[in-house]
């Protein structure tokens, strides 16, 4: 990969693991946890782009894509064509944050200030541009005392009152072995499929509802199991699990451990699954990218601020798709990533 801008890295270590945060996006990876049986496991994804790719020509979020980071606001730059019921004419300046210029928000594409006053924690801080309704983001990652896990907090300070879609973006590695990762969501109400183009082949019916990952209906009427990844065939799918309980587990059957993600379901009522299964053929993906995003969100998929803050099919179903921030108030949420051996 041809190098883009220099990216600072900061390390932390505690008795049950070690982790690295980079300045770009405050992305967290690699993360290595020490299991009680002495094994080291590293569940987070790190994109490995080909050496000949001019990565600097892509949005900064892709330059060193990896691990976990916050997205304020949460959303893509171009949703492409959508069914009429998903379109919005909502363009209130009160919540506009120039998100079209920054996929998944300014903070996902900018270098943060990093510091670690203690060896077992990292603090990251970022000031947003003056025209943004958001003033600053602060996040802190701390090793769990005596446990293979991390506690993470995100604080958002608003410059003025605003409503935005927000999300967290934990991205986990998928091994080459088909079906080696077993997905175990907590309780939820429904699974919604993406209403537009996912950037690669997705066998699922668009803009449809399902009940279980293990029995997802495809366009040709057959059933596919998305609870075991990766799949043998290339695909690129986005799913939204609604009214979650704030818990999701990934069982690595090859390596015999599970990763647990816990979040505040009042702050992030849905979780978006980004199944990137060698489906995107364009550069820099080149049909080789294997990863699973398990992304707690308060958002209408990744369809951006106007759709999420406006009336949309999710909000009409009673599912909250934006977070309201008050002027000069600090909004804080906490979440965690931890591992343990499988029985």
Automatic annotation (TrEMBL):
GO molecular function annotations of the record: carbohydrate binding; catalytic activity
Location of the region described as Disordered in the Swiss-Prot/TrEMBL record: 80-112
Lineage: Bacteria, Pseudomonadati, Pseudomonadota, Alphaproteobacteria, Hyphomicrobiales
GO biological process: carbohydrate metabolic process
Amino acid composition bias (Basic and acidic residues), ranges on this chain: 86-100
Native organism: Cohaesibacter gelatinilyticus
Protein name: Aldose 1-epimerase
């Amino acid at each position: 990969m041809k190098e883009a801008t220099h990216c600072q890295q900061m390390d932390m270590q505690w008795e049950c693991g070690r982790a690295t945060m980079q300045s770009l996006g405050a992305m967290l990876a690699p993360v290595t946890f020490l299991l009680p049986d002495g094994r080291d496991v590293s569940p987070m994804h790190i994109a490995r782009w080909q050496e000949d790719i001019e990565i600097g020509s892509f949005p900064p979020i892709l330059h060193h894509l990896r691990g976990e980071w916050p997205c304020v606001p949460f959303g893509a730059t171009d949703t492409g064509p959508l069914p009429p019921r998903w379109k919005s004419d909502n363009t209130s300046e009160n919540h506009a944050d120039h998100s079209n210029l920054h996929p998944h928000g300014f903070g996902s594409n900018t270098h943060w200030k990093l510091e670690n006053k203690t060896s077992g924690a990292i603090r990251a801080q970022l000031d947003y541009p003056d025209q943004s309704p958001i003033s600053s983001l602060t996040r802190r990652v701390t090793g769990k005392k005596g446990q293979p896990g991390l506690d993470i907090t995100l604080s958002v300070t608003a410059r003025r009152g605003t409503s935005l879609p927000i999300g967290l973006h934990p991205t986990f590695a998928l091994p080459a072995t088909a079906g080696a990762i077993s997905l175990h969501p907590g309780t939820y109400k429904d699974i919604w499929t993406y209403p537009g183009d996912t950037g690669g082949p997705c066998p699922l019916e668009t803009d449809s509802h399902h009940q279980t990952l293990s029995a997802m209906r495809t366009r040709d009427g057959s059933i596919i199991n998305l609870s075991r990844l990766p799949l043998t065939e290339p695909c690129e799918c986005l799913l939204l699990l609604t009214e979650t309980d704030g818990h999701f587990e990934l069982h690595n059957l090859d390596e015999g451990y599970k990763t647990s993600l816990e979040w505040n379901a009042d702050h992030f009522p849905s979780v978006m699954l980004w199944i990137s299964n060698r489906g995107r053929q364009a550069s820099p993906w080149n049909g080789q990218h294997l990863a699973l995003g398990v992304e707690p969100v308060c958002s209408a998929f990744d369809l951006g601020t106007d759709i999420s803050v406006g009336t949309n099919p999710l909000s009409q179903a009673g599912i909250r798709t934006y977070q309201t921030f008050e002027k000069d108030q600090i909004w804080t949420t906490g979440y965690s990533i931890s591992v343990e051996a499988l029985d």
